[in-house]
Amino acid sequence: MFDGLKDKLSGFREDVEESTEAEEEPPDDETAAESGAAASDASAEGVGDTTDAAAVESDSAEAAADDDSASSDDEPSTFQRAKAFATGRIIIEEEDLEEPLWNLEMALLESDVEMSVAEQILDSVRESMLGESRKQVETTGELVESALHDALLDVIAVGQFDFEQRIAEADKPVTIVFTGVNGVGKTTSIAKLSEWLADRGYSSVLANGDTYRAGANEQIREHADRLGRDLISHDQGGDPAAVIYDGVEYAAANDIDVVLGDTAGRLHTSDDLMAQLEKIDRVVDPDMTLFVDEAVAGQDAVNRAKEFDDAAAIDGAILTKADADSSGGAAISVAYVTGKPILFLGTGQGYDDITLFDPEDLVESLIDEE
Ligand SMILES: Nc1nc2c(ncn2[C@@H]2O[C@H](COP(=O)(O)OP(=O)(O)OP(=O)(O)O)[C@@H](O)[C@H]2O)c(=O)[nH]1
């Protein structure tokens, strides 16, 4: 999953490794001379005998470094570099990162990562790597990996909550309404989620709030029949809020844990359909409204998530078709842009093809070298 993005992130690691390679060389005579006698001593001692590094760090070299850094700005001073080398450390400088960060930005944008998200990732990678010194035991690759890990996790995990725990703790029945544009996989996701809940001991009823599209009742009925779930539906043209309300009543009367309410596919610009969502909110007051879109839709999915959230607040998102060859941009961007987490990934057309979204797992899989 998201292999293209994974390759590109690995390209960033290689870029940084390449550009810091030169830094691995000891400072030349000129550099050492510039740094003054104390630095030369520190450097010579450090090179000759790394076990003395701690002593070098703690005595005259330290004092000289302080003096030196007082006169410089953000750039590590010559002396700091000499000291870093003497103590077996490498300092990552702005110029080492310039080209790799540029390439990383291009790679993220090509992977459909939203602009503000890409900038946030770059800022945090830059911040955690600049001026960073590493021990010889730590490779530059490891340093890059940890910077990328933290930067990605920070944007992907925005607003994340434990879906199962929320279901467990909520008063029953829990009502979940699904929104999104046409054909992205809302109905299929409802059927999958009904199975996912059943696997964890929760009963559910489906309610078809898509009273707009001809054939919508038949489509969801097919899923309900296959899964052996009850379905609440009204005739085409009926009031979606009334259908979902009936679903809630039915669940309460029959001791069913969760109501899964479908809605017609709509654009956020369809005023009448968006007004329906507001009415559902008013009449049913759902516990959660989940926005469904396709991972393959990339930036479009991110923009739609934002537009839907603005028009009728969502609590989280489901990204379907993550099994198709998608760029990964939507999975990385949706939470940061909307402030609402991705809760599930759809990974195929079978009822079991749904995975609880775990930001840490996604980040690990994106930066894993294997
Ligand atoms: N490969 C793949 N296909 C999926 C996934 N989720 C849904 N689909 C397919 O996407 C198509 C559309 O799914 P629907 O569930 O009908 O979409 P919808 O959003 O309810 O559509 P409307 O009712 O028209 O708004 C179907 O062929 C599904 O099998 C997924 O995670 N992976």
Automatic annotation (TrEMBL):
Region (Disordered): 1-79
Record's GO cellular component terms: cytoplasm; plasma membrane
Biased composition regions of type Basic and acidic residues, renumbered to the chain: 1-14
Gene3D superfamilies tied to this protein: P-loop containing nucleotide triphosphate hydrolases (3.40.50.300), Signal recognition particle SRP54, nucleotide-binding domain (1.20.120.140)
Principal place of residence: membrane
Residues the record lists as binding GTP: 180-187, 262-266, 320-323
Compositional bias per record (Acidic residues), positions renumbered to this chain: 15-32, 64-76
E.C. no: 3.6.5.4
SUPFAM superfamilies: Domain of the SRP/SRP receptor G-proteins, P-loop containing nucleoside triphosphate hydrolases
Catalyses which reaction(s): GTP + H2O = GDP + phosphate + H(+)
Transmembrane segments: none
UniProt key word Ubl conjugation: no
One GO term (biological process): SRP-dependent cotranslational protein targeting to membrane
Main enzyme class: hydrolase
Single GO molecular function: GTPase activity
Domain of life: Archaea
Cellular compartment(s): Cell membrane; Cytoplasm
Biased composition (Low complexity): 33-63
Domain SRP54-type proteins GTP-binding stretches: 341-354
Topology versus the membrane: Peripheral membrane protein
Subunit organization: Part of the signal recognition particle protein translocation system, which is composed of SRP and FtsY.
General function of this protein: Involved in targeting and insertion of nascent membrane proteins into the cytoplasmic membrane. Acts as a receptor for the complex formed by the signal recognition particle (SRP) and the ribosome-nascent chain (RNC).
Protein name in UniProt: Signal recognition particle receptor FtsY
Species: Halorubrum xinjiangense
Name of the encoding gene: ftsY
